[in-house]
Task: structure prediction
Amino acid sequence: MMNLSRKAAVVGVYEHPTRFAPDKTVYQIMAESLKGALDDAGLTIKDVDGVAAAGIGGGMGMIGLCDYLNLTPNFVDGTNVGGCSFLVHTMHAAAAIAAGLCEVAVVLYGSQISSARFAIGTGGGGGGGDAPEQFDGPFGVTTVGSYAMVAQRHMHEYGTTSEQLAEVAVTMRLHASMNPAAKYRDLITVEDVLASRVISSPLHLLDCCIISDGGGALVITSAERARDLKKKPVYILGAAETVRHGGAGHRDYLENAAAQTGKLAFERAGVKHADIDMGMIYDSFTITVISQLENLGFCKRGEGGAFVSGGRIRFDGAFPINTDGGGLSSNHPGMRGIFLVIEATKQLRDECGPRQVKDCKLAIAHGTGGALGTRHAGATLILGNQ
Amino acid sequence: MPDEKPKKYSKPLPHLDEEIRPWWEALKRHELYIQKCRDCGFTRYYPRALCTNCLSSKTEWVRCSGRGSIYTFTVTNQNQAPGFRESLPYVMAYVDLDEGLKMLTNIVDCPPDQVKIGMPVEVVYDDVTPEVTLAKFRPAR
Result:
């Protein structure tokens, strides 16, 4: 089997600064992000021969996007598996580049979910056409409720506390305070999290990600071409994707996609947990971080609450996580996987200013899409600057 | 009671697909079934035509005792979807059926602050429309 490690690199990134953009279309946000990422790489739209995106239009959204951008690429990926889609796109783009299907692939995201006043976590309640939705929609499943059931079980089995969950939110806010683009930058305390209203027990309002507009773009090319571009290449060392669901009724809900993708990504990258300098760990909710860290193998099952406490996950701690402020404080336009790759890349290029992780050589990005307590996809990327 | 039905039922309704019509019809008779593969013995919920373990379509319908225990739950205080926003708070839960499968459902006839993981529960049939009955659970009596 072909090893993808170091065959491709992220050479351009751009996080759209907007958090509220009722005056733009999602296509415009994507095009502005594309320009930003190509400028960052020192490339132009004429170099682009691969396009990936999620969350635009209906089932044939990729055709409309290519029409809008006037692109006729050799590689198209419209995989939509929720928030982690962009990590999946990065892996697919690396594979396509390694296989010679294209040379410069871009991954695009744009969303106006905030200005459209769409309730991401507490809306819905089923009614969709997917087979499993017939068996959970009628009971009022919400996104936050699905994660809340994981948190409740975690507390029951391991004695994890609301204070430990709150540590995640407090740390993300600290990081956001050092990110000028973050939506919420005022520091909060564990007490503030516990005093916020309970949305779906045991999760409080401040255990939940914020809702913003936003967008971003990545430029990915071959390791060979990357060496001649403007910025220091960030190599894709290991990548993996999978799905978890009800398992026909046999599921253990404290095990998630990260257990499979983490193991595969580490094997494929040929590195160890102790080698990793920082993590971008999808923080749709505080429990998401704790459960993913356990499943990725950074601590044992049940130890996630203690792991995130005591400053370990601060930008200056032993294992910094989500230095941009995460979905809990910086931005969450519905699917924030692209920002995991963008911030990890900036950290590996030493571009993060006051929140820069010292001597950052290896980073892990893990995303979840869908809902941890019902069904979700997961994807892991291990990125390095050498 | 939190689970009292609004005058007009506005929560999402399942599609009553032909694929598993016998399952929905059994619920209407207030009977709950899981499926078991006649070839490999693998049990499954939710119901579907083919075994997910061996893709056999030979299916035995196994009548459930209707008993189980709460695997996990959440008290939902916020849901903006029609039907649910009028019935807050409500309890969503996975019940571990005595037959060994987990089922997403609602816990009813119990104050939300009394619901606990491990609590023994029994099925109650909620005839939400003339066509659709949902299997919900209450503390075992």
Notes: Chain A has two domains: 8-116+213-237, 143-208+238-384. Chain A has a mean pLDDT of 95. The longest strand of chain A covers residues 234-244.
